[in-house]
Amino acid sequence: MEPRRTSRTVSDPKVRQVGFFTSQHHHHHHHHLPERSFSEPPLPDPFHTSTSTSSAPVTDVSPSGNLLSPVMILPSRHHSDNLHRLSHRATSPTASFSYFARAVVVRENDDSLLSPGRRGIAVKSPSSVVAASSFPKGGFDLTAVKASSVPASKLTTVSVVNLPPGISEKAGGASVEVQNDRPAKSKPLKQKTSKAERRATQEAQRAAKAAAKAFFNLLLKLAVDLYSLAEGSKTSAAVPGPVNSANTKTAKSPKSPSQKNDAVSVAAAEKKAGDRQLEKDRKKDVPHPRMQYDDQSRVEKAKRRAVVKQTEARNRVELFRHLPQYEHGTQLPDLESKFFQLDPMHPAVYKVGLQYLSGDICGGNARCIAMLQAFQETIRSYSTPPEKSLVRDLTAKISSYVSFLNECRPLSISMGNAIRFLKSTIAKLPLSMSESEAKATLQADIDRFINEKIILADNVIVKHAVTKIRDGDVLLTYGASSAVEMVLLHAHELGKQFRVVVVDSRPKLEGQLLLRRLVGRGLGCTYTHINAVSYIMHEVTRVFLGASSILSNGTVYSRVGTACVAMAAHAFGVPVLVCCEAYKFHERVQLDSICFNELGDPDAISKVHGREEINYLDGSTNSENLQLLNLTYDATPSDYVSIVITDYGMVPPTSVPVIVREYRKEHLWI
Amino acid sequence: MWWRSPSFILDRQQQNDTASRNPESISLSSPPPSMADTLQNPNPNTSTSAYYQTRAVVTSDWLAQAQAAVGRHPDDDLPVNDERTKSAAGDAGKPFSVIDEFNSWRKQPDLAEAVAAIRALAAVIRASQATTMMELEIELKKASDSLKSWDTTSISLTAGCDLFIRYVTRTSALEYEDFNSAKSRLIERAEKFGEISCKARRIIAMLSQDFIFDGCTILVHGFSRVVLEVLKTAAQNKKLFRVFCTEGRPDGTGLRLSTELAKLDVPVKLLIDSAVAYSMDEVDMVFVGADGVVESGGIINMMGTYQVALVAHTMNKPVYVAAESYKFARLYPLDQKDMAPALRPIDFGVPIPSKVEVETSNLDYTPPQYLTLLFTDLGVLTPSVVSDELIQLYL
């Protein structure tokens, strides 16, 4: 296994390029090295030693040492740099304050450089190199602080301790990228500093303004502060940026308690500004819904702001590293424990988020409606804070909710469209409108969206689709699509004589739910698994499929397995009908199922529910050689789709972009 | 790849060819400038996207093309106009009936059924006694329904009526407060639509000239007036080509076409329907008409079109469809049986035992993947654009 993998990745860099890195060869090494690192003796370098001392047994196999070795000059220099600063900070609180100011500058600057078309972690200054590689310790630090200030639940600690392997691996990748990028990026650094400084001063002014705020506001914030304090490293990292986190971490590596306290006190001193910053960051840098999860810098950034602390699964399949994958079951208690600390999160949103997380709400339409209704709820109880405008503040609020929901479960494309609709509706509110009016309008608009774009659209789809069902038909459907279910039930109500084949697949077995409802209504059904699709297909006359989204090139993005069913149908000459509401259309183009997808719980496929004796993989799930891939969606090329039934009628898949073009632009969905 | 080197005819008549090419290429180059014009001054009304401003269904571009066609062949169209005004005037006195009107239009030999229907519907608006827009619309709807029921199997008739109503009523005229001015707007639009439909054939014939090259062999299936017009124009343009006509059982449509072509001195060869695959390797392109063009971009046409297209596709020959845009129908057949069957008795020449079942369906559906291009009065389209145009018009 090992030689093959290594050789493949090295010889064929394209394999890794899915992660949107440019042709950096090292890269491949770096992502692979961690897996081999067990067998390799760690190199003695300052960095490495610090890592191993600081963290749990997992980390001492951290590859950071041997990873960095080819590039090592840089970090070591940096290390000393850090120590120097550290001493600064230790000496006096004021000094540390000034240091933070500096840190902010660096960070902002970092930001501005990174933001356009970033590649990996484009680090110009050595400081952030350390920041990147330091993350595991930051994480560890977090727990430590938490343990001291808040009665930390055991679960959280566990989850954090789980962190290092994945991250240290990332750190390796990051540091290498650093080396690659540095020559290119070092120039712009200088020019941008002035801008960064300007921003820093703005920051300061804003902090001053904040001080002038009403007293109770501060009081309110105290709660949040407490929370941020508990996440010491998070706050401090968020405030001064990578440099600071690097600092705390280097400070930590010797594990001196005094320094930890120091970090906390610093954080406390910086509390007000820090908190503000944190809040602002949450709103501003809402992680992109399609964040590349092998893009170290972004992941780190997102993590710092994340509300949901998810544990990343370790053995992710090579091609899918850019997607988030988490260990399931660890986040829920953690999130629940945080409920009262999450000041800005509206309970309705929180509830929906938890339901996504636990899988209580699934299915494109259900998720979208739940989200919109939660937003409706938040709008109902929303009041514009003083000195803010509803349009901007509410948009920011929605953005932060969206990022929370995205952390719970990656947003579906339909939800993305709905959010886009909502935001544009907010943006289009006339300024003269009073707050209550605006709120009422927004709520009505959301209602209208749900009604027209989802419920009525489904009715129209049903009306069209039943015309394609004739007596004597055998209809095959895969998984459970709400639209298809409505079509089947309606056709049955109309008295059409047909039989249904429900094809299902592990691990979700959603088809059983559909089957139960269909049989309950008196339809004749056959139930089979996707393994038998080629057997059953010869008796089928129509295939009805649902879709999570249809993209501009006609590609149907749907529950994994759909492509297989569509292709089998195509091979048998059976027409494939895709029922999909037009609000799920997206102007993006996708050719494969790799670039954008969602990874499910790998445990779900390694275990069989209710069959304890099927435990062949027990014990090997943590093996470096085993990577479990539980994909959630796949992409069906439009060649395999005969017709798309949508609320604008029955169209060929090539007409999806026409609908997107003609109906999105003008009235943006309504 | 289908652009083969000129065959025997070209070798023989090299001289004539070069002589005849020049005037013809001049006349052919005139449509592109008119298109460029419309590109430069797009419709100021920006409710449609820029894409459609230049090439919309029934918009300025279409009209420009129609006008260009009129300019070139004024004598073709004038008698039609005369006839129309005459019959409209004659109908004004007695109680109005769409079907009568339709039948009177249908007497013209060259007028397609759908165009006759469109003319008849225009007459409905003119003769209408309605005093409100709603009334008029209902009247129009009734008339079109009765026309459609006159021949339910004709797709172009249904599509033509639907498109007419769509086109005529989808105008800001309906918001005019003054009913009479609104009505005159509608009549105006109806006339325009009728004229456009009449000229469609000519436009298609002109557009398709670029695709017929000297020395080519064209396989034609069925008798289509558009295809005939295309071939006629090509012959007039002194193109050198030969035509293979399938026999077209049971109606002998190919026999009809071959006699027409023989009159034009075009070399023609008749094939029995089952010889399509046999002679396909000599063929450079397949030309067919269409009864209806459906939303998928496929066509519904005379029985046998599907297999001709399949054979051509297998042998990598282009299949061109000549169809007027009023044949675009909002239908989406998934397979052959997914349409209302149009049945026609077949005479086998010998008595058929009653136990033997006979397939009497007259139309088949050719899916879009077997078609190369559609020549329509909207331009030369790929099959997928059909749905584009339909969405544009119907929604």
Automatic annotation (TrEMBL), chain A:
Top-level taxon: Eukaryota
The protein's name: Translation initiation factor eIF2B subunit delta
Subcellular location(s) of the protein: Cytoplasm, Cytosol
UniProt keyword terms in alphabetical order: Cytoplasm, Initiation factor, Protein biosynthesis
GO cellular-component term (any): cytosol
PANTHER family: TRANSLATION INITIATION FACTOR EIF-2B, TRANSLATION INITIATION FACTOR EIF-2B SUBUNIT DELTA
Pfam families: IF-2B
MF term (GO), any: translation initiation factor activity
Quaternary structure, from the entry: Component of the translation initiation factor 2B (eIF2B) complex which is a heterodecamer of two sets of five different subunits: alpha, beta, gamma, delta and epsilon. Subunits alpha, beta and delta comprise a regulatory subcomplex and subunits epsilon and gamma comprise a catalytic subcomplex. Within the complex, the hexameric regulatory complex resides at the center, with the two heterodimeric catalytic subcomplexes bound on opposite sides.
Comp. bias (Basic residues): 24-33
Segments for region (Disordered): 23-64, 169-204, 234-307
Biased composition (Basic and acidic residues): 269-300
Similarity comment: family membership: Belongs to the eIF-2B alpha/beta/delta subunits family.
SUPFAM superfamilies, per the entry: NagB/RpiA/CoA transferase-like (SSF100950)
Organism annotation: Rubroshorea leprosula
Compositional bias per record (Polar residues), positions renumbered to this chain: 48-64, 244-262
Automatic annotation (TrEMBL), chain B:
Protein name: Translation initiation factor eIF2B subunit alpha
Chain intervals for the UniProt region annotation (Disordered): 1-48, 71-92
Keyword Protein biosynthesis: yes
Biased composition (Polar residues): 12-22, 37-48
GO MF term set: guanyl-nucleotide exchange factor activity; translation initiation factor activity
UniProt keyword Metal-binding present: no
Keyword field: Cytoplasm, Initiation factor, Protein biosynthesis
Similarity field: Belongs to the eIF-2B alpha/beta/delta subunits family.
Lineage of producing organism: Eukaryota, Viridiplantae, Streptophyta, Embryophyta, Tracheophyta
